[in-house]
Design a protein that fits this description.
mainly beta; single chain; Ig_Fc_receptor
Length: 333
């Protein structure tokens, strides 16, 4: 029995990594949890980010997070305000010398916003497509050796070439299989924005929701629609947000004239007993430029105003002097 226990102890376990939330919101933090057998038995935890090498080969490497160089005593950590799509991995270790577990499976945190020199463009520009449609995915930007990747809703990671024709930074998805997956670009500069794409079933009378593939800025006008595979017009369509009816008498389209954060959510449409898959519509702030805070903008505004006043006073002084008049500045306290 002791021999069996010793053999079990020497088997390297595979930790299970979970991330929450899986999609980023501005200013939000994420929580990583690394689950391993016998969690109270002296484990330390090491956390890594995955990134792409400059090689064109399908090889990614990892970099340890600074907070975990010496390992963390807890199996859960919080990362404040991550800004872009990232893959995370955890490893546990214990003993002297340290014996490590295997690496966990990579878990991704997705960002719909683009923060790198490479971005993903989708054509046609919508989140849902029929399996008979060709979907063109293009990595745009200054990166070299960009490639399109996808992560399916059943947890498998693929190069886009598995599902279509890949030519450098361009991938044409032609596989006629229904799939729901997150697509993004990888390059030596990092990961691009991520896009959630659903390819609907082969049924000829199926319907899809036509919705924006990228985040919508607050204050903009957004129109979503409902489309039949046959292309025939739909007369009676109901639109739902988070499974609640929001429109039932406006035809095959619904328009939100001034988008706000409260409009963010999962949308779907129904018509004649058919229902589309649901898609997430993301709303991003349009009031503050990226990387700025209200305090910084206020300071910049005040400084600009002060400089403008000084400039006007200098011009007035020069004008008075040219006319041979004296200029007095009276300060009332």
């Amino acid at each position: 029995m002791e021999l069996l226990q010793s053999m079990m102890d020497n088997i390297k376990p595979v930790p299970v990594l979970t991330v929450s939330p899986s999609w980023l919101s501005p200013g939000a933090s994420i929580t990583l949890s690394c689950d391993v057998i016998h969690p109270s038995a002296g484990w330390k935890f090491y956390w890594y980010k995955e990134f792409r090498t400059s090689s064109d080969k399908y090889v990614n490497t990892v970099k340890i997070l600074p907070m975990s160089i010496n390992g963390t005593a807890t199996a859960t950590i919080t990362i404040n305000e991550p800004s872009h799509t990232t893959g995370y991995i955890c490893v546990a270790g214990r003993g002297d010398p340290i014996i490590y577990t295997h690496r966990s499976k990579t878990k991704f945190v997705w960002s719909a916003d683009n923060h790198h020199s490479v971005s993903l463009k989708v054509s046609p520009g919508r989140t849902q497509h029929f399996v008979y449609d060709s979907v063109l995915l293009t990595c745009e930007g200054n990166a070299t050796n960009s490639r399109v990747m996808l992560y399916t809703d059943y947890g498998s990671l693929y190069r886009c070439s598995t599902w279509g024709e890949e030519n450098g930074p361009v991938c044409k998805v032609t596989d006629q299989q229904p799939v729901k997956a997150v697509f993004w670009c990888e390059s030596e500069l990092g990961f691009s924005n991520a896009v959630n794409i659903t390819r609907q079933s082969k049924f000829i009378d199926g319907i899809i929701l036509v919705s924006p593939v990228h985040p919508v800025t607050e204050g903009e006008i957004v129109t979503i629609g409902c489309q039949l595979r046959t292309g025939h017009a739909l007369s009676t369509v109901s639109f739902y947000k988070d499974d609640k009816l929001v429109q039932s008498d406006g035809g095959a389209e619904m328009t939100i004239s001034t988008v706000s954060k409260s409009d963010e959510g999962f949308y779907k449409c129904q018509s004649s007993g058919k229902e589309s898959p649901q898609s997430w519509i993301s709303i991003k702030s349009g009031s503050t430029p990226e990387g700025s805070s209200p305090h910084i903008l206020l300071f910049v505004g005040l400084a600009f105003g002060l400089l403008l006043i000084i400039l006007l006073l200098v011009l007035l002084f020069c004008y008075k002097k040219s006319k041979g008049e004296t200029f007095e500045l009276v300060i009332i306290s």
